Amino acid sequence: MKRITPYKQQKQYRIQNCDYSEIGEYFVTICTKDRKNLFGKILKNQIYLSKIGEIVKDVWSIIPKQFPDVVIDKWVIMPNHLHGIIVINKIMFIYKNLINQIPTDQHNTFKSGIKNNPMELEKITLGRIIRWFKGLSTYKIHKTLKSKFSIWQPRYFDYIIRDEKTLDEIREYIELNPFNCDEDRNSLENMEKWTSDIKSQE
Questions:
Q1: What is the residue-wise DSSP string for 108-162?
Q2: Cα(202)–Cα(195) distance, rounded to whole angstroms?
Q3: Domains defined along the chain, listed by start
Q4: Model pTM?
Q5: Angle CA(18)–CA(62)–CA(149) in degrees, nearest 5?
Q6: Which of 9, 32, 123, 131 could staple 202 via S-S, CB 3.0–4.6 A?
Q7: Contact criterion met (CB below 8 Å) for 148 and 142
Q8: Strand order from edge to edge, sheet including 156-161
Q9: Under a CB-based contact definition with an 8 Å cutoff, are residues 154 and 53 in contact?
Q10: Residue 157: is it exposed, middle or buried by C-beta count within 10 angstroms (0-12/13-18/19+)?
């Protein structure tokens, strides 16, 4: 099996000329702030989620409800990060005046009253999906714990999956992640990476 290490130390940004709203499969890794073990612990190759980890799991699970043309493929929550495959099945749009808001319901009204007005629509990208996920999970964690503190690191890591073989390898990597937690933790420090790994801004 190909060694998959989705982290990259040096400063990098998005792939140039890549449209992250395009139909496709994306492998993402999202880490906690300062890589603190907020989400739970590994015991006997099994992850036991903390209260924070349970909230993160719940919010990740409802991404397809918020974005109906998105599918969540294989994923796993580890003590200080989350690995997941996000599948965008259709190019999606959102009204521009909601682009920086955390959607909490499906009953929104807009000034123009024109359905799908192109002047008010903007593409939904992978970055916007991640920003929604981070924002809602942070809100719910703060509300539940009645305390405010940083949950997520500012950026995330993504890899565009281009063929079935790679998809199967990444699915296996995610499934075995709790069994390889020491290796996965060490990969945060390793410099030997996939050459096309990207550290993306939201």
A1: ---SS--TT-TTSEEE--HHHHHHHHHHHHHHHHHHHHT-----B-S-EEEEEE-
A2: 21
A3: 24-105+116-181 (3.30.70.1290)
A4: 0.73
A5: 85
A6: 131
A7: yes
A8: 70-78, 81-88, 24-31, 156-161, 198-200
A9: no
A10: buried
Q: Smallest Cα–Cα separation from 187: which of 84, 80, 85?
A: 80
Is 103:129 a contact under the CB 8 Å cutoff? Answer: no
Contacts made by residues 37-41, CB under 8 angstroms, sequence distance 24+: 37/79, 37/80, 38/79, 38/80, 38/151, 39/77, 39/78, 39/79, 39/80, 39/82, 40/77, 40/79, 41/79
The token pair at 166 is 């790679």
Strand partners, 183: none
User: Above pLDDT 70, what percent of the chain?
Assistant: 63
Q: Which two tokens stand for residue 167?
A: 């998809």
* Cα dihedral 129→130→136→142 (10° resolution): -170
> What pLDDT, in 10s, does the model give residues 161-194?
999 999 999 999 999 999 887 655 545 443 234 3
Q: Cα(198)–Cα(11) distance, rounded to whole angstroms? A: 9
pLDDT digits (tens, 9 = 90+) for 66-91: 998 899 999 999 999 999 999 998 76
Residue 35: DSSP 8-state: G
Where do we find the tokens 């955390």?
Answer: 102
Q: Which of 71, 54, 20 is nearest to 137 (CA)?
A: 54
